[in-house]
Every structure is written in C-alpha cells, then in structure tokens.
Amino acid sequence: MGKYLDTHYQSIHEPEVFWAEEAKRIHWETPFSQVLDYSSPPFAKWFVGGKTSICYNALDRHLIERANQTALIAVSVETNTEQTYTYQELYTEVNRMAAILKSYGVSKGDRVLIYMPMVAQACFAMLAVLRLGAIHSVVFGGFASHSLAARIEDAQPKMIITAEAGMRGGKVVPYKPLLDEAIELSAYKPEHVLMVSRGLCAFETTPNRDIDYASERNKHLDSLVPCVWLDATDPSYILYTSGTTGKPKGVQRDTGGYAVALATSMDYIFCAKPGQTMFCTSDIGWVVGHGYIIYGPLIHGMATIMFEGTPLKPDAGIWWSLVEKYKVSTMFSSPTAIRVLKKQDPQFIAQRDLSSLEAFFLAGEPLDEPTAQWISSAIQKPIIDNYWQTETGWPILALQRGIEVMPNKFGSPGVPVFGYNMKLLDDVSGKELPAHAKGLLAIEGPLPPGCMQTVWGDDKRFVSTYWQGFEGRLVYSTFDWGIKDDDGYFFILGRTDDVINTAGHRLGTREIEESISSHNNVAEVAVVGIADELKGQVAIAFAIPKNNENIANLEKELMRIVDQQLGPVARPSRIYIVEALPKTRSGKIVRRALQAIAEHRDPGDISTMEDKNVLIQIQNVISQ
Ligand code: ATP
Ligand code: MG
To answer: Among all ligands shown, which has an atom nearest to the Cα of 286?
Structure first.
C-alpha cells in the first residue's frame, strides 16, 4: 500500500503542493496566486486568484486535438433514437444554446433552473449556463410541482429550461404542466421558460414567458459566445439534497476546485483515458450525473453516454449492447440497478463482447455482498464501490487504482480518497476511535477542492448543519456511521439521520411526513424506510386520523397527496391507519421500533417507551 499511502499522506500534510500539481490538469486563463485560503474555517477557498471556465475545459480546450472525436452519445430507448455529437458539434450546439440564453439576458451569477429528461439538450443547457458564468440548478425530472416550487423559490432562477415531457417504461411523463403549477405555487417567478419540444405531447404556452427552443436555435445557428472567465471560487452550480429537514439544502459548488477534483478523479479513481467512452447510468438530476455523465468525462476528453430509459428495455441486454457498440471503457451505476438486472438471465451479459470495459463503478447506497459478487462474476471486471455525497461532489472513499491497485474487499468502499482527512469519531466526545470501533464518519477540515462551498444563500446553515466543534477544531459530519479494519478499509454502517433510499431515489422521511400531514384529517404521522429486496428500501407510513369517520379511503387519499406534492417516487408502499404511535417518555416517536415491527423483527430495547401496548396495536394493524 506504499504508493497509495504516500499520495494520501502528501494530500493531507502538504495539500498546497499536492493540489498545485494536480491543478495543471486543467486550463487556467489566469493562474492562481494561492492554492488554499483556510483563514476563515470551515470555508475553504481553493486556487484563489485563478480564473477559469468549466465549459472551456470541457469543450473549447479539446477542439485542437479532438474536434472530430465523439463527445456525446445520447441514447433513448424510449423514443428509439441515438444521436452522436463530436466535440466540434457539441461545441456548436452549446454556443447556440448560450446565445439564446444570452439574448434573454442571462449573464454571470444569474441562476438558470434545468428541469429536463435525459436528452442531449439538457447537456447543452448545463454547459451553456456555465459558458455564460451563470449558475445552474438541475432538478430531477421525477420531482412534482411542490418540490420544484421550493427549489424555484430558493434559487430564484432568471430562466427555466425544460421539455414538455420525459418518458419512462414506454409511458409519456408530462413535465410542462408540473412546471406551470410549480411556477404558480412559487412566490418568485422566472422571467422566461425555454421549451425544448420533443413532440411527445401537447402542452400549454404562456405568452411572453415561454420561448420555443427550436425557433430560437434557428436564429443563432452560427453564433459563437465567448466563455466568461470566472474566479476559481465563483459558484458553478446549486444542487439540492433530498432534504430530511423538510427544506432541501442547496449545495453550492465552486468552479476551479470542482474542475481540478473531477479531472484528478478521472485519472486516479476511474483510471479513464482521453478518447475512451464513459457510461454512467445515473441521471443529470443527481450529483453523480453532474460529475460523471457531463463534466468529468468531457473535461477528460472522453465520449460520454446519456441514457434515457430503464435497464430492461427493450430487454435486459440493453446496457451491455451499448458497451459493445460504443466500446465503453468505464461504467458507473448504482447497486439498485444491479439488483434489478440480477433477476434477469445472465445470457444477456454473456452474449455481449465486453472486452473494452476496464472497470465497473457503483455508488449511492451500500453495495451488499451478494450483489457485488453477482456483477463481479457476470462481467469478470473489477467492481469498485465508492462512497460519497451530494455535498462532496466526488468520491470520499474508493480504491484508487490509478495510484495503486489494491485488493477489493466486498462490503467496503475502500480507503480514504486523496484530499479527504477521514476520521471515525465518538459522536459525543469527538474523540478519534481506533480500528473496529463504530463511529461517526467525519472529515477534518478543510474539505478538498470541489466539495460544497456553502449552503446556497445561507452560510449559517452550512456551518450549523455540517460542522461540529470538538476541542476547538471544526469537523465535517457525513451523518453516516462507519468502522474501519486493520488495513484502513472503511465500512459504512448506515445513516445517523432518516433518509430512505428507494430504487436509487433519496427521500427524506420528514418531507413525506409533512406531505401526509397536510391532509386535514391527519393528526400525526411517522414514516420509516423498510428493507425491500428489489428497491433497497421502501417508505411506509403510520398515520393517526383526527376523527374516525370517513377513513375507509384515507390511505388512498394520502397516497394521492404524496403523489401530487412530491411525485410517485415518494409514495409510501403502505400507509397504515393507526390509533397511536410509539413514543418515548419525552414525546419522541420511536421510529426504529416501527421499522422493526414492519420488518418483522424484535423491537429491541423499549424500556423508555411510554405505552408498550401501542406496539401490540400496531402489530395487529400490520398483520390484518
Ligand atoms: P440528504 O442529505 O438531503 O439527507 P442524501 O444524503 O440521501 O440526502 P446523497 O448526498 O445523494 O443524498 O447521498 C449520500 C449518502 O448516500 C451518503 O451519506 C451515504 O449514506 C449513502 N452512500 C453513498 N454511497 C454509498 C456507498 N458506496 N456505500 C454506502 N452508502 C453510500
Ligand atoms: Mg446526506
């Protein structure tokens, strides 16, 4: 482990030397004068004085060497289309899009919200926004109007870019009516909505506000828009977490640090080479999609695949046929997707030529051993579990095969990534724990380049949410429990807060509870996540009605409310109508007991519980 240990040691003890070297991977229009300014912890400023552009690094810089190389492959198995763009063509489209935005007044520092399915125009939009020095906020297309409205109000975008619909499993999923409703709900109104019409369904247009992308594009076919050079510390984007606290946190990311961190990760973690093809099956609405569908591979001079569809359509061989066809070298997906594929005939994989594939990366949730073993033996390639968060923007724990090839341990996402000073702490005293002791997984500041700078518009919330003071020093909390072994490999043991991970979508239990409580006949509600073989976890809810008349359809009505406010991904699989909830003497709902009963486990220590009969009642309701 010598090479890895030396590299990691240097990144922590001489961060300025380490990162100054890695920063050479990108183009700097003006060189930085200071690598790190940590004079006001926990706010870390990387590459101070430097000016750069993520869009320039992802596109313009490659035109000399790889203008005719493929940059973007947009595949939709829903609309049966496949379109390939070279770097030159992508550059042209991004310039057209940037010219449209510019003509409607979008400039440096403005926010632009992108609410789009996985189509090439979404990639153009993200790059065009950064080309202008504006800040994007991509909102996952599965979110319904209520969630969307909260994000519109918080980011106050000058413009929103959308399409009339997405498609999933052969069904058209309209976006435009949800967006119209969200704008209606929001106290803040955007000036314009740029509509990419895919011809999937009819939609209403609001005069003077809505603009048509196709006709605007025709006006700017030959437009070239120069990149706006930003300070390395200027924001590039905002991305909201799923929001366990009710109000989602807008993670604000910088420009220079993010570009350097992604470029470095492409080499040391993903072992990818310019000219190769990356296939990341995430969605642009998630942090993995930002970093490893769009920016990472393009900054690195690779071709990247954007995929609209499910891994089972037209059949379970679709991903592997794309690997064969486009000679994918680097694949990145989630454990949930693999659990879906695991149920299919392995022939779908066996009949494809996967010789181009070098490694398969998985992140987002715990990778259980059977799933890891299955994919490992099915594709016979290294399986690299990696652990990170929306907040960090790139991996925290991973094997770094570009530095040194180290043995894989199933169940562990590996060792701390360069730049991350990882600690396992006693959550009360902040004392560092030895190997084999379960502790709070924390990062000693400063966070490395590319991590969140602050909560958008709320520095106080950034400090109070994430940073804990222990003996005079500030430590970033991941809100995950972890443990490490004698070799320094970490294992993630679950979350310290309550988030449900259902089929790769992260849902705050708090958000679902708030939605259910908005029904006028709900007195109290608790939502917990329970294990589900297919989706990882599903939400279930326990609601106490205010009065017991007219409750025959209550479960259905509550599900409808969740559908409307948060979207069907957030709908609990069951909402049990109960008389009481298990509570501690201090009045806190004992969610772990609800979860245990619903999973048919022993509720464990219930000595602090107010009324033990409540659990028996709930057990009866569940088994009815
Ligand atoms: P919120 O912060 O709003 O509650 P979230 O934490 O669900 O949302 P993300 O930032 O997407 O949203 O998820 C990061 C979390 O996912 C990690 O903190 C961890 O709990 C889990 N996670 C990610 N990758 C892995 C992994 N490889 N193994 C185990 N857990 C993982
Ligand atoms: Mg989180």
So the answer is: 1
Nearest to 4 by CA among 310, 312, 370, 399: 399
Is the model more confident about 394 or about 428? 394
Q: What is the pTM of this model?
A: 0.85
The SS3 call for residue 432 is: strand
pLDDT score recorded for residue 245: 42
**pLDDT tens by residue, 361-379:** 999 888 878 789 899 999 9
Indicate the top mutation candidate among 499, 511, 537 to test ligand 1's pocket, ranked by most ligand atoms within 8 A of CB: 499
User: How many residues are listed for the chain in this entry?
Assistant: 624
Task: Compute and round to an integer the Cα radius of gyration of the chain.
Answer: 24
pLDDT in tens, 114-136: 999 999 999 999 999 999 999 99
- CB 509, CB 524: distance < 8 Å: no
Mutate which of 139, 241, 247, 361 for ligand 1? The one with the most ligand atoms within 8 Å of its CB, which is: 241
Question: The dihedral of CA 341, 346, 351, 353: what is its sign?
Answer: positive
Whether 141 is in the pocket of ligand 1, judged by its Cβ within 6 Å, is: no
- pLDDT tens across 190-221, in order? 999 999 999 999 999 999 999 999 999 999 99
Of all protein residues, the one whose alpha carbon is nearest to atom 27 of ligand 1 is: 387
